[in-house]
Amino acid sequence: VALAVKSGKVDAALFDADPLREIMRQDDTLGLLGDSLFSFPVGAGFKKDNEALRDQFNQFLSQTRQSGVHAEMIHRWMEKGETHMPDIKNSKTNGVMVVGISDNGFPFAAVLDNQLVGLDIELAQRFAAYLGKEIRYSNMDFGSLIAAVSSGKVDMVISSIYITEERKKQIHFSDPYYEMATNVFALRKNIAAYGAETSVVAGSP
């Protein structure tokens, strides 16, 4: 989508605010058009008959909020632009948990030096440590995540997934762990020209 804007194929585009912030950190030719248009809560997903694991995640999430760990994670990944994982101790004495993710880039999930990093990855690792489980990732296309967890191929999915009523028909969601906004962006040099003319706008996948 960013390439479409930069090449002039579209005048402006919609994109999730946090990944867009990462793109704009690397490319100062792009700028925002106004405030966020809307936002959605983001949650982890679980198979409908696995309420126990969903409830354990919600308890874990509540504890991380109360301890300040959650706020510190948000600050590092979202505001500071962190790119490296902290050291998370895990006894790994209670079996294995398979987590479905999609490495669509910072700040949620990316591959750096052959290692998965990001807010979603840290949250999954902290949850695995909370349970004392070894974590194994199943990295797949974003569009395959809901089917993977609803069919039991993975124990949970965590990949900046919007909580929507349509998705709730297929899987259970955790309590929200983030609120994701959507922004319109364009080339900075063209932003002043927008307003009177109708623009062609592209949406994010």
What does this entry look like structurally?
The protein has 205 residues and is of the alpha/beta class. The chain is 35% helix and 27% strand. The chain contains 8 helices and 11 strands. The strands form 2 sheets. Strands 1, 2, 3, 4, 7, 8, 9, 10 and 11 form a 9-stranded mixed sheet that branches. A two-stranded antiparallel ribbon has the order 5-6. β5 (110-112) and β6 (115-117) form a beta hairpin. The longest helix is centred in the first third of the chain and has 17 residues, at 51-67. The chain is globular. It starts with a helix and ends with a strand. Mean pLDDT is 91; it is low at 196-205.
| Separation of the first and last Cα atoms | 9 Å
Pattern of helices and strands? HEHEEHHEEEHEHEHEEHE
Mean pLDDT: 91
Morphology call? globular
Class based on secondary structure composition and strand pairing: alpha/beta
- Rg, Å, rounded: 18 Å
Total strand segments = 11
Main beta sheet strand tally, sense and closure: 9 strands, mixed
Question: Helical residue percent?
Answer: 25-40%
Low-confidence stretches: 196-205
How large is the count of helical segments? 8
Strand content: 25-35%
